[in-house]
Amino acid sequence: MALNHIGRVQEKLKNYAQAEQALEESLSIDPAQPGVIQHWVHIRQKSCEWPVYKPLHGVSLADMQRYTSPLAMLALTEEPAVQLLNSQSFVNRTYGLAQEHLCQGRTYQHQRLRVGYVSGDFREHAVGFLLPGLLQGHGPEYELFAYDFSPEEQTPLRMQLKNGFHHFKSIHDLTDRSAAELILADEIDVLIDLHGLSSGARPGIFALRPAPRQGAYLGFMGPTGMPWIDFVVADRQVLPDELTLYFTEKPLYVDSSFLPLVSYVNDDILVERHQVGLPEKAFVMASFGNTYKITPDMFETWLRLLHKLPESVLWLIDDNEASTRNLKAFALARGVAPERIVFSPRTGHTVFCARLKLADVFLDTYPYNCGSTSNDVLNAGVPLVTLYGKTLVSRMGLSLLKSLNLDQNAAPNYAEYENKVVAIARHLPEASAKSCEINLNNFKINYF
After folding, report:
1. Which residues of the chain have pLDDT under 50?
2. What pLDDT does residue 97 have?
3. Is the pTM of this model over 0.90?
C-alpha cells in the first residue's frame, strides 16, 4: 500500500521514473494488482518508455494488455475490436454497477427538448475548450442543463460555459444517486456523458438511468462498453457504417465534423521564433499532443522526415523529464542531432494558440489523433497532416479536414503521411491552410 501511494504521488508530480520504480516494487510483492498494472502501463506511455509492455516478473503480457486502461489502449492499438473488449473488461472489473431505471415509464411533453450535460470539465480542459461551439450549435428548440462537478476556476472560459446553459447546477457534493434524482426531477429528455471512461467519470449517475435516452460525447474517443449508454455522437467520417460493429452504442450522426470548431486565436498576442528557441529560417514541424500519444512508429516517421528535410526541426512539448530524456536518446541513437528537436514547456491556452502560428506544419499523432489541439491548429492557419485508420480515435483528423475540404492532408499509411509533409515543405505557400476560410458556425446537433 505504501509503495502504491508513493507511485501515485510521484505520478501526479510527473516524476514518472520514480513512480514506475515504486509500482514495480509493489508488483514484485504482489503481481495480482490490476489497478497497479493499469497505472504502470500508462506511466510508461507518458514517459515514452518503449516498448510499453516490458517483461515483468510475475506479470504476463496477457495481464498487461487485459489491465491496460481504456484511455491508454486508444493510443496502443489500431484494432477496434481490441478497444471494445478492453472497455467492456474495464467496465465489468471497475464499476460492477447494477442498473436501475429511475425514469422507467416516464414520458415528457416539454415545449422544448431538455438536454442535460454531465461533466467535471466545464473549465480550461480539452473538452471544455470545444464546448462553446457545441452549445452554440443548439437551436431554440432545446433547453440546456449542466450538471457540473468541475474544479472551480476564475477564467473567462468557465464564465462563458456557465452562461451557455439555461440551467447550471452543481453536483460536486452530491452522491451519484442524489445527482440522478436531481436529473430525474428536472425531467431531462436526453442526458449526455462528457467523460465516458476518462479520468473523473461518474458512471454511477448514468447506471441509474435518470433519463429516457443517454449518450456519450467528446470525453472518451472510443467505445465505452457501458450498457447504460444508448448512443454516441459521431459523424460518418469518424464512425463509418463498417466500424459501428465495434461500438455498443448506436451512432447519432451530426452533419459535418462531430468536433465543433472554436477559435481562441488572439491576434494581439505575438510570439517570435527566437523566444521559444526555434531557428528563424527552419521548416518547423510541430506536434503538441500528450506524450502518451507518441508511439515508436510515429516518432520513427518524424525522425525520417528530419533526415529528408535537412532544414527542418521538430517542435515538441517538454511535458516531463522522463519523456523528454527518452525522446532525445531515441533520436540520437538514430543519427538525429539534439538541436534538430526543440522542446517547449507547457503554457496557458491563449499563448499556446499564439505559438502555434510559428509552425509550418502540424504532425498529428496515430493511432490516437489530436482532437481539441487540432481545432487550435486549424484556427491558427497551420496545415494539419493526419494519419487515419480503423478506429474512431484515429479518424478525428480526417473528420475535421474533410469538413473543411482539406482532406488531401489525410493519409491512410505512414508512407503517404511522410510524402504529404514533404510536399508541404517544398510548396509551403500553396499548401498553407491560411487561405481557407474556417466556418465557426458549422456545427449543428439534433437529438432525435
Report:
1. 432-442
2. 83
3. yes
Which of 263, 196, 264, 198 has its CA nearest to residue 234?
Answer: 196
Structural element, H or E, at residue 64: helix 61-66
CA 389, CA 378: separation in Å to the nearest integer? 21
Give the pLDDT score at 267.
Answer: 79
Q: What are the tens digits of pLDDT across the range 260-285? A: 888 887 778 899 999 999 999 999 99
Angle at 389 between CA 384 and CA 393, to 5 degrees: 70
Residue 433: per-residue pLDDT? 43
Report how far residue 286's alpha carbon sits from residue 314's, in angstroms, rounded to the nearest whole number.
Answer: 6
Residues 6+ positions from 64 with CB-CB distance below 8 Å? 37, 41, 53, 56
Kindly report the average pLDDT of the chain as a whole number: 93
Residue 303: CB partners within 8 Å, gap ≥ 6? Answer: 314, 331, 334, 336
Dump the DSSP string for 113-178.
EEEEEEES-SSSSHHHHHHHHHHHT--TTEEEEEEE-PPP---HHHHHHHHTSSEEEE-TTS-HHH
152 with 146: CB under 8 angstroms? no
* DSSP β-ladder status, 113-119 and 142-148: parallel
**Which segments of the chain belong to CATH 3.40.50.2000?**
273-435
Q: Which architecture, in CATH terms, is 113-253?
A: 3-Layer(aba) Sandwich (3.40)
Beta partners for residue 115, in sequence order: 144, 190
Interatomic CA distance for residues 222 and 369, integer angstroms: 12
Residue 434: is it exposed, middle or buried by C-beta count within 10 angstroms (0-12/13-18/19+)?
Answer: exposed
* Predicted pLDDT at 444: 57
Of 105, 319, 121, nearest to 212 by C-alpha is 105
Domain 273-435 fold: Rossmann fold (3.40.50)
Q: Where in the chain is the domain with CATH 3.40.50.11380?
A: 113-253
Q: How far is CA 370 from the centre of its chain?
A: 6
Please report, rounded to a whole number, the percentage of residues in the chain having pLDDT higher than 90. 88
- Portions of the chain given CATH number 1.25.40: 2-68
Q: How many Å apart are CA 327 and CA 266, to the nearest integer? A: 32
Q: Which CATH number fits domain 2-68: 3.30.750, 3.30.420, 1.10.150, 1.25.40?
A: 1.25.40
pLDDT at 441: 43
Q: Which residues pair with 342 in a beta bridge?
A: 315
